Amino acid sequence: MSSLRQRRFMGVPFSSLIAKAGAGTTGTAGAGVAAASGASPEYLEPPSKIPPHHTLTSLSITHVQFRQDDIFSKLLAYVTLSPLAIICGYVAVIITSRDLKPLVMFAGQLANEVVNQILKRLVKQARPTEYLGDGYGMPSSHSQFMAYFSTYVAILMYRRGVAPGAVIPHIVSGLVIFWSGMVIYSRVHLFYHTWQQVVAGTICGCLFAVGYYYITNRILRPMGLFAWVVNHPWARSLYIRDTDMVDDLAQFDWEMWQQALKNKQEKRE
């Protein structure tokens, strides 16, 4: 009787149960035991679909390494990812406003990245560490990205001067420049770049922003390119607008909203 209990459990041979457990823990070896014991296929677990860890890699765009014992280093690891948030902001503003001004700025941001990749392949200077970051390090792409962004924003804030007593341009420009400085410093603190690489990226980003703004707003706009775009049938069907001539867009939108409310009230009366 005891030998029968050892051989069977709930009508299933013990050899099959052992083979099933071996298949779940030892993979191919367990399958071999099951085959040798004559276990039925329904008692075997399917092979795992999870690939081995040594065959996987991380997405370098979002993979940031930092010192675990340094709280400031952890904070900078989040700060250094902020260009991704800026890109998401670009897309959100373009979709919701349907305005050429942020679209033109975003196009310059993308062109700035292309220039950065070309410069890296021309200079071919390695990063300070072999295991942090991919590709070449001169000039720093994060630094060039943030330098373009902050410079272009500052140009938009001050291009028509500042009204007496106005503080918004100063606050916006100051915050953006401080933000850019933190991102640029994070690349050195986290050992992804040298000081020379981030300084070179900062200079390239500033120069590109100034040159791009001059070309788009002093050459292409007077030529009527943007007017042609907004008057195109496709652009008109999507309600694309160009608010470059508006000094204070927030005030302009607020006044339009007030006018819409007034018109709605007059219709009710």
Our measurement of the CA-to-CA distance between the termini, rounded to an integer number of angstroms, reads 97 Å
3D shape: globular
Element string (H = helix, E = strand)? HEEHHHHHHHHHHH
Number of domains: 2
The biggest beta sheet is recorded as: 2 strands, antiparallel
Mean pLDDT, to the nearest integer, reads 79
The portion of residues assigned to helices is 55-70%
Cα-based radius of gyration, to the nearest Å: 31 Å
| Strand runs, count | 2
Major sheet strand order: 1-2
Secondary structure tally, helices: 12
Structural class: mainly alpha
> In percent terms, what proportion of residues is strand?
under 5%
- Low-pLDDT stretches: 1-37
Keywords: Endoplasmic reticulum, Hydrolase, Membrane, Transmembrane, Transmembrane helix
GO molecular function, one term: dolichyldiphosphatase activity
Pfam families: PAP2 (PF01569)
Membrane topology: Multi-pass membrane protein
What would you note in describing this structure?
- This protein has 269 residues and is mainly α.
- It has two domains: 2-55, no CATH class; 71-253, no CATH class.
- It is 65% helix and 1% strand.
- It is built from twelve helices and two strands; from the N terminus they run αββααααααααααα.
- It has helices at 2-7, 14-26, 28-37, 71-79, 82-97, 100-123, 141-158, 168-189, 195-220, 225-230, 233-237, 249-268; strands at 8-9, 12-13.
- It has a two-stranded antiparallel ribbon with strand order 1-2.
- It is globular, with a radius of gyration of 31 Å.
- Keywords: Endoplasmic reticulum, Hydrolase, Membrane, Transmembrane, Transmembrane helix.
- It is a multi-pass membrane protein.
- It is an enzyme of class 3 (hydrolase).
